[in-house]
Prior knowledge:
Elements lengths: L8 H25 L3 H27 L10 H17 L1
Helix pairs in contact: 1-2
Amino acid sequence: MHQQANLSEEDLLNDLLNQEKQLMASYTTFISEASCENLRGILTNHFNQTCKDQYQVFDNMRQKGYYQPKDAQSKEVELTKQKFEQIKSSL
C-alpha cells in the first residue's frame, strides 16, 4: 500500500521556490556555455520567464507570511552596490 505524504501549502510553495532557484542557477550555466546564438536567446528567454515565476512564488509566500525576508538597511544596500561596482570595474 502506498502512503501519500500530506504536505502543507507552505511546504509545497517552499519546494517550488527552491526548484525555481535551481532552474535559475542552471540557466545561467547553460547560457554561459552555449555557443549558438539562437540557443543562447532561447535559454535567455526561459531564464527571464523563470525569474518572473520565481518572484511570483516568492511574493505569494511573502504575502501569506511563509517567507519573511529581512529588510536591508540603506547602508547595507550602498555597501553591496559599491562591492559590485568594484567587481564590475575590475573585469
